[in-house]
Amino acid sequence: MAKPSARERILGSYEVILADRGPAEITLDAVAAHAGVSKGGLLYHFGSKDALRDGLLERLERLTDDDLERARSAPEGVVRHYLRSSITDVTRDLALHRTTMAALRLVLNDPIAAEVSRRCTERTRELMLEHVEDPVTAELVMLVGEGLYMRAALGEEVTGSLLEQIEEIADRIEAGAPAKATVAAGHLSGARLQVREGNPGDL
Q: Which intervals of the chain form a coiled coil (predicted)?
């Protein structure tokens, strides 16, 4: 595997500090020290904290687009891939999950980050509507996926039975029973709502 460039190391360090400690702990000196570069080396790639934020958000959009392409070509279909990866992205600690967790630290207080997050969600919605005919059902699929993701991200144990429930939910959706999926969506999206309404420092 190729060694990450200095720019990628710096951005990765920003991501780690942001996710672990929050925006208040971000300084150029701290990011440079974590990345193992001089402050001048950091400034060569990122001239300010805003530039670091923009780099992270560009990474988020790129990783989101890559993930949507994988979903589009997944043998199991978009719905099953979306629901399953909502859990496995977390349990496997994939790059998109790490970047998402860092970006969540910004979303509640940074309108630029909030707009990028909105665009990523809209791209996901567009893909879902390509494969789920009913818009309400497509939205329910997204809510279930977001709820599963937040449950896993908040540390809830993910068991085989939960993954089996994904098959049942997908089967019901494909059989044209969105009303039954509503119960699952309401239950599983609770963590998502708590995060939206909570203190950003709790993320």
A: none
Q: Are residues 156 and 175 in the same domain?
A: yes
Segments of the chain scoring below 50 in pLDDT: 177-203
Shared-domain flag, residues 158 and 69 = yes
Looking at the structure, tell me whether residues 39 and 88 fall in a common domain: no
Looking at the structure, do residues 22 and 98 belong to the same domain, yes or no? no
CA distance 15 to 104: 11
- DSSP-derived letter for residue 172 is H
Q: Are the beta carbons of 157 and 199 closer than 8 angstroms? A: no
Q: Tokens 């951005």, residue?
A: 11
pLDDT at 17: 97
* Domain hosting residue 118, numbered range: 53-202
Q: What is the pLDDT of residues 84-112, one digit of tens each?
A: 999 899 988 999 999 999 999 999 899 99
Helix runs in the chain, H state only: 6-21, 28-35, 39-45, 49-73, 78-91, 95-107, 111-131, 135-153, 160-174, 178-188, 190-197
Q: What is the pLDDT of residue 61?
A: 97
Provide the CA 75 distance to its chain's centre, in angstroms.
22
